[in-house]
Amino acid sequence: MRIRVPGVITSRSPLGQNLALAVDAAITVSIEEESLEWEVVHDDPLLPHDQNNEIVAVAEASAPWLLPHRLHVTSTLPISQGLGSSNAAALAGILLANQLADLHLTTAEIQERAMRFEPYPAALAAAIHGGCQYRDPINGMITTHHLAPLQWFIYSPTQFVEASVPRKFPDQGVTPADYAALLAALEAGDDLWLRHHFPVESLRSQVTPEYFPQAEMINRAVLNCGGYGCFMAGNGPAIVCLAPVGDKQFETLLRHELTSGDLLALQLQDTGAIVA
Question: Which residues form the GHMP kinase N-terminal domain (predicted)?
Fold first, then answer.
């Protein structure tokens, strides 16, 4: 049995975390035989291989009576970059418990349990259902939206200030109406609006003062190459770069401009978590 959970793009600001996009990078958990102790096979030297692995810890918190199994985890989702790797791991843990303990949870119950570990409803909804999910900050309702084709890239600098996203946003001047306009532009692929208004939150308000010079340099490179601009991904340090779908030279030009990091092309996907 395999569980696949996609990564998610959000912007970790008061309103930005209400807009979440599922991407093709994902983690996959293969459930193998029972064992005396949990054994999590993966190739990341920084992550635990036993019951302390987040996937197992969440599963045991959901069903403490679970029998240990051998798990094989593979991932195309960069860890600690702001692409929802912990969100995906927590959801994988809930789905693992649901399967092994025969909990028969509904989708709503899965999301409710996952909220105990990752308290961002739009991000969880995108990971569960796929696509673009928007949570209305006024009434809390989550709706699915279909975006026009655009080019999405993640740029991860080799060197960065760890706390790239501020803990507090004291000068936040963006309103729900601003995000509604952004969502409408993304749905329509409105080139003119995106060139004049993207991102809706200034880059300076999204990053710490120490990180701003580097982020602004990346943003200038994106604009110089014909893109719309950047915003911080989740907690960072990765930066989301957006460009028109028809600009075939954008990626080549941007790779030439940005040489002190990794540029990853992402595809938005309509498919959410899968258990097969």
Answer: 67-130
Confidence of residue 69 (pLDDT cuts 50, 70, 90): very high
Q: Which element (helix H / strand E) includes 223?
A: helix 212-224
- Partners of 220 in the beta sheet? none
Cβ pair 5, 91 in contact under 8 A: yes
3 state SS of 35: coil
SS3 237: coil
- Identify which of 138, 134, 229, 243 has the alpha carbon closest to the alpha carbon of residue 183: 134
Residue whose entry in the numeric block shows the structure tokens 């569980």? 3
Largest CA distance in the chain: 60
User: Residue 48 forms beta bridges with which residues?
Assistant: none
- Mark 159-185 as b/e (b = at least 16 C-beta within 10 Å): ebbeebbbeebeeeebeeeebeebbeb
CB 127 within 8 A of CB 91: yes
Q: What is the pLDDT of residues 200-211, one digit of tens each?
A: 998 888 888 888
Nearest CA-CA partner of 143 in 161, 127, 131: 131
Distance (Å) of CA 27 to CA 15, 34, 144: 26, 21, 22
| pLDDT tens digits for range 82-91 | 889 999 999 9
Q: Which amino acid is it at 13? A: S
Q: Cα(208)–Cα(203) distance, rounded to whole angstroms?
A: 10
Q: Are 87 and 127 in contact (CB under 8 A)?
A: yes
Query: How many CA atoms, within 13 angstroms, populate the side-chain half-sphere of residue 133?
Result: 27
For 8, 134, 150, 186, the CA distances from 271, given in Å and listed in that order, are: 12, 16, 18, 19
Q: Is 24 helix (H, G, I), strand (E, B) or coil?
A: strand
Q: Residue 223 CB: number of other CB atoms within 10 A?
A: 15
**CA 135 to chain centroid:** 15
